[in-house]
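Sanity check

After download, print the first record. It should look like this:
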Amino acid sequence: METTDTQITDKVRDVLAATFNVDASEVSPELEFGDLPQWDSMGHMDVMMALEESFGFEINAETISDLTSIALIVEHVNRKK
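Expected structure tokens:
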């Protein structure tokens, strides 16, 4: 079954909410790096590791610094699937 953008976005939002220990309602699809106090450089690495585990693929070091919003993360997941 094909995974839709909405399903991927929801999963990414769930990963961020769990990683940052916030309610999923605080994680909007428009959220970007720095919008939450927890999404700093250390939090970003935690998110990347959680995304790798959740989606089952590795995010290379060059790409990690580019994935600074939910929209960019969803695009990356779509390219990897």
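If your output differs, re-run the checksum step. Summary of this record's structure: The two ends are 12 Å apart (CA to CA).
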